[in-house]
Amino acid sequence: MALGAGPPIALEFPEMHTFLQGTVGGLLIGGTYALIALGLNIIFGTVRVINFAQGTLLMVGMFMTYWLWALGGVHPYLSPVVTVPLLFGFGYLVQKSLVAPLFARERAREPMSVLLLTLGLALLLENLALLLFAADFKTVQLDISLRTFRVGGIIVSVPRFIGLIAAGVTGAGLYLFFTRTDIGRAIRATGQDREVARLMGIDDFRVYNVSFGLSASLMGIAAAILVPFFYVHPAVGTSFLLKAFVIVVLGGMGSMPGAALGGLIVGVIEGVVGVYVQAAVAQIVLFGLFVGILLVRPTGLLGVERR
Amino acid sequence: MSPPEKIVGWVLGGLVVLAVALIPLLTRWLLPDDNYWIQILIWILFFAYLSASWNLIGGFAGQYSIGHSALIGIGAYTSSLLHINAGLSPWLGMLLGGVVAAAVGGLIGYPCFRLRGAFFSLVTIAFAEMLRVGTELTDTVFGIEVNGVRGLLLPVLGHRPAAFQFVDKRYYYYTMLGMLLVVLAVGSAVKRSRLGYYLAAIGDDEEAVASLGVDPARAKLLAMILSGFFTAIGGTFYAQFILFITPTRTMSLDFSVQMVIMAVLGGMGTVLGPVYGAIILVPIAEITRAFWGGSLQGVHLIINGALLMVVILYWPQGIEGWVRRWAEGLVRRIAARVSPPPVVEAVMAANAPVMVLPEGTLLPTRAISGNGEPLLVVRNLSRQFGGAIGVRDLTLEVRSGEVVGLIGPNGAGKTTVFNLITGYLTPDTGNIWLAGTDLTRLGPHAINQLGVARTFQIVRPFIKLTTLENVMVATLPRVKGVAEARKEAERYLAFVGLSHRANVVAGGLSTGERKRLELARALATRPRLLLLDEATGGVDQRSLPGLVALIQKVRKEGVTLVLIEHNLRVVTMVADRLVMLHLGEKIAEGTPEVVVSDPQVVEIYVGGAGAHR
Is the pLDDT confidence value at B300 over 50? Predict the structure, then answer.
């Protein structure tokens, strides 16, 4: 039964309305998921390692954003001016001083121990944050935080909508960076064939450093998007990281368009399953999808097998 | 080790176990109330056990599972639910839980193990988190009370050994000690078995293992099944010890990470490493908990995280090597005192060559024939990478007993051809036959088993194994036992002239020696067809004639050869026939003299440089 001046879609197809609400909600958060997965894929695509500290870097970005707001009154949407360069430097240093030595030592193309190293880094940073900031759920209350608007009866949260736009703009910016700049092209070339890239005069370790920095700095943007409507907590990175894993496998390990597509798909699945059953069940559905993709198409939807 | 050293080693080991077994008696005698201390000792044994179980797949095979807590949860819940609902003794439930976890471990491992490294880590962590969330949300399954996030309280029965419940903690201590000894014994047996050699090699270089006729996915799957079984049994112990299980605790990321860190610190892939890791890290966690307990949680995790990074960066071999060298020194000193080695033997041992085998023993190849039948037939083979062409419409025949040289400039598709023949790549179109058997869709290990061996452009020895062990990985699949595999491997090392380097870790070999080692390894699979990818590439001028002579020696043994070679002088000397590739297509074929004077070939090799200007 529709109440009052209900929207036309809801009047005629209440089921359709629920479905659309779930889809839109999923798309809105999916953009941010895609951004985090992009961060993982920039590193996987070039350095060919998994960064287990990606979620933790997001957490660090969120705390920086939070404190900038709480102590300095900086609006979260302005915080990337500070967080992006800081995180870039941090990521750059992590690769240069921690990951690169492992490459040199193991003489392996894809040293697996990087996975354990970044796991250690994640543990360290996450529990350091727990020690410093306690296990409280911190939230930032802005005048837009709870604001919504309606499109054809679908409720759209304003900060989430802004987030999707911002993620889209960031993605477009990355696309231009990778296709139009020398360093962007160098990163792509190294990802395709590092030996040949090296022969062409590309300093592959510098490319790795920049990739790590770039990937970390993206977490500053993701943090700015999330903080207006998401809690800040030392363990906030883990759930985002796990979703990002699902996304990169779904979209294709190392594929940038794959991360974007996968992020939106995962967001929508989560949104739709969330409105029908409950959000936590969505996680189980996502895992099923994850294993299914690994079995049927391990290269992912848009992944390309490499030489 | 000499026999007296072995005896001393066993006696010392036995004494250590005895001492560990006596600790609870000592604490009872020394302390008025030793419950707390016994509990800590039990945790040390428990984590040593868990970490040793993880090590079977994580350390031995280098497949880092970050979701082993899911298996703990499966064990704890299986035995507890069976106990509460069906009255089944946890002793039996424990085995069932182990079987369930082994099956689940196999199921999540199966899709990942066909892929490389990182996927497995991603899947295990995702699986553990989702199983945890799923259990937290589940109150009943088919009418069985699971009780979601609140967890299960096991009925307290007092001292009931048949139901795996004790009042005196010492019983748990001895139970766990027994379990730990079992898992260590299993680890030690695996390590010395065929599977152990495969796993160690897989940890170094999985693709190279497949080229030796070993199915890496199968070896990893076996290790995962073993690991899952023992991990789940640890879960039952946990449930019976605490008598209260929640998904949040038993399936926690914390448990998973602890297992990893203890094994890494102790020494990954070693039998005893996890024990040392637990001896150090459990007390650290206890101390920080005692000092900063409620107010500052997670201090021990900060330490763990930092330790994990430091150990990976600066001390990747962990504690074990250090303890082992010390223990071996002790054993030697004691053995020398108990029974000094006879002088003559000692001198002989010092001067003995590592192996006395005539070089150039006949290789027992499968098909020693030069009858000119077509052995390898390649028809219309094509393969693209994205939009780029790797190989286009290649047709090729290699007759048995022949030596064919594959030449062409960089990027001509030579290595791609090898990768297609040996199953490292699948062709888009076309077919490959070996003596009438279609190889086109087979995997690398299956193709090797049919008689095709290869070497790699950039040599890929298993750098952590010794030279001899490297070759053993290739002989193990086709002989009865490890001892026989060793004897076989020695023959191949002698053939390539590396006997004197048998016990050197392969990471310490020179490039020329590595090339020889890889050749020995490939030959040890008894190929009918051997593909050599730049057998002389990157080798210094002095080693070159020796390698060329070796290739000719291989040929005399009747092995059919295809070589990729940049050095035209070498290839015209060795090959009967040359095939020239350019941009993925065959542009010339024939005797070396004909091909080398082909105007197109000359144009590409010589004129090509001119075209750049």
Answer: yes
A-facing residues of B in 186-225 (CB < 8 A) are none
In chain B the domains, ranked by start, together with CATH numbers, are 3-326 (1.10.3470), 374-611 (3.40.50.300)
Distances (CA, A) of A96 to A51, A100, A197, A199: 14, 5, 19, 21
Give pLDDT, residue B326: 92
Within the 43-82 window of chain A, which residues sit less than 8 Å (CB to CB) from chain B?
44, 49-50, 52
Burial of B492 per CB tally in 10 Å (0-12, 13-18, 19+): buried
Sort strands B144-145 and B140-141 into parallel, antiparallel or unpaired.
antiparallel
- Distance CA(B183)–CA(B189), nearest Å, equals 10
The string of pLDDT tens digits covering residues A149-203 is 888 888 889 999 999 999 999 999 999 999 999 999 998 888 887 777 887 888 8
Pairs of residues, one from chain A and one from chain B, whose beta carbons lie less than 8 Å apart: 129
Position B568, amino acid: L
- List, in order of start, the domains of chain A with CATH numbers: 8-296 (1.10.3470)
Residue A163 token pair: 């987030």
Q: Is B123 helix (H, G, I), strand (E, B) or coil?
A: helix
Residues, chain B, total?
A: 613
* Closest-approach residue (CA) in chain A for B136: A280
B257 CB within 8 Å of a chain A CB: yes
Q: How far apart are CA B231 and CA B55, in angstroms?
A: 10
Q: What is the pLDDT of residue A7?
A: 47
Cβ atoms within 10 Å, residue B279: 17
Global pTM value: 0.89
